[in-house]
Amino acid sequence: MGSKWRKAKLALGLNTCLYVPQTAEESSSPSPNGVVASRHSDAVSSSSLLSPTGVVSERRPTTPTPSSSGLKTGTKSSKRTCAICLTTMKPGHGHAIFTAECSHSFHFHCITSNVKHGNQICPVCRAKWKEVPFQNPASGLSRGIPRINPVNWPQDDAWMTVLRQIPPPRVDVSRPITSLFHTPEPAIFDDDESLDNQPDISMNKASVEDQTSNNNCIGIIEVKTYPEVPAVKRSSSHDNFSVLIHLKAPLTSARQNGSRIPVSQNSRASVDLVTILDVSGSMAGTKLALLKRAMGFVVQNLGPSDRLSVIAFSSTARRLFPLRRMTDTGRQQALQAVNSLVSNGGTNIAEALRKGTKVLVDRNSKNAVCSIILLSDGQDTYTVSSPGGIHPRTDYQSLLPISIRSNNAAGLHIPVHTFGFGADHDAASMHSISEVSGGTFSFIEAENVIQDAFAQCIGGLLSVVVQELNVTIECVHQSLQLGSIKAGSYKTSMMTDARMGSIDVGDLYAEEERDFLVTMNIPVDESSNVMSLVKVRCLYRDPITKEMVNLNEAGEVTIKRPEVVGQLLVSMEVDRQRNRLHAAEAMAEARVAAENGDLAGAVSLLESCRRVLSETPSARAGDRLCVALSAELKEMQERMGNRRAYEETGRAYVLSGLSSHSWQRATARGDSTDSTSLLQSYQTPSMVDMVTRSQTMLLGNPSPRRTLSSVKSFPAKSRPH
Asked: How far, in whole angstroms, is CA 205 from its chain's centroid?
């Protein structure tokens, strides 16, 4: 009977094998021969089924691998482990065990919680149950939180590794939505878990002043300034003279001590994170399994002071649980909720964003950092265009609540980092959502990159060291006026007399860098040998102490005014940033041409930009950023080769690149988050470390995969390996 059941599951595409970590109780229990059982014995026994010889390879795949013969399930180990809470099931330990009609067993309180969330499908084999368990509400449980046994999760455990491709079932958008989306929710989401021992916000200002120098590290943020050329002849003027302002955020506490281990919870700002996950019908199969695994990684890497809430959406949206601290119990409950997700229905991104925003707007207490992560593999079928598609709309901003748009006067700063999954997602809407909210847009082309893409994002969010950063540029010489401030997507402003301007930078991750070009017209000046151009000031909040830091004399730019000037070399730093801006402008123009149907013109624009870049001083010197820009432009040319290629991957690739350059922040593009790639020019060391952890976390053991090194958009000191 067992063999027939396995064959039936294989035919239906329901045969999956999941690895779950053992608890401390299991790992410490002696084996029959008296030796302590290995914590990876279950994984080895399951993985051995992949090979006819039963030999397990040293390097197991971290991503789903197709199997022509299928995998067996129901091993002795899996029968001892509840697939929902990932803890052991042993008779006589005070927990009732429920065995479903498909023969899989679970803790009774776990499966009743699973059913309460609307899931009537077996979490292991996905068989539809005719009978489901029900548990009456227990007294003494506040806010309806189920009774859960805390688990001491090892920090680097792999909780779920999918070992074969799950063929997606046929999608039926008209199917009724599971009851998960129809259970009542509170009118106000003020049921977030309280924060303990959080410091009060202080409006004190710490003024840091030091001697002025172009290459001086003042206070915490490092500020450097570079004039286009060091001197301008007294009797000559110079129009559109460029000055580069370079900022670099400080290191985290652990890195200041030369350590590469993750920083402790007390040495970084805590995060309130809302993840909005697409569980529409198109996410069925491998996509949903990989999404659950990626969410498991996120849960495992949040600290006990970080809080997480999950919104699942298809034709409607549902909050799975309120903002909850990721303690051991919180992690366990979060994993249960994510594991209960099933896929069907349409795609209602607008309602999901409204609900996710409401979680952060209604919360009673606030962590220093907050953000939303949105993942979808489809197009909104309810707001941008009606389900029937009769009156399609292109007002993508309507998907985002007004309260968190970056140009909103309410002052709420809640960036939405969007992830477009696969070839069918609406890249234009996802890019618009991220751009308007101050987040980034990542394009996940390959399914197996989803966890690494999430890892890169949270690697940044968990390393915020600067908030509310505002940079002010003020002219010093009485005859000077600012011409332009080139800051990408960052909001800039300028006084009516053009003597002063500012850039709202916002948050910076640890060791993150920003480069802004300011232009001005240099007049004739016979009065002195030295001319002061502009002063730079910085004002920002320290997210840990909550104090405002004011760098009044962050930097002053001066040039020489000799009577005779020889041949001058253009600053390499200024030249490479000009190249970056030129490349970004070419990408934007090429995208407009492609959207208008002129793919040949788009390719020509990119090729022309490549030729111009190759002739610049920094490119001739072999500058790494210029090499990366050239490679990126070439890749975009290939993805614009024909209409089909552009529609499938080209548009998303270009938009993700534009998002990265406009915010000067790393995004996942195509099928890689590898920092050794030339395209990852904005990855911070914290991002690299988190991606490395994702890529090496295989069945709990870091495997000797490739070593990642950070690629900088600006010359940086080499990092220890």
From this structure: 31
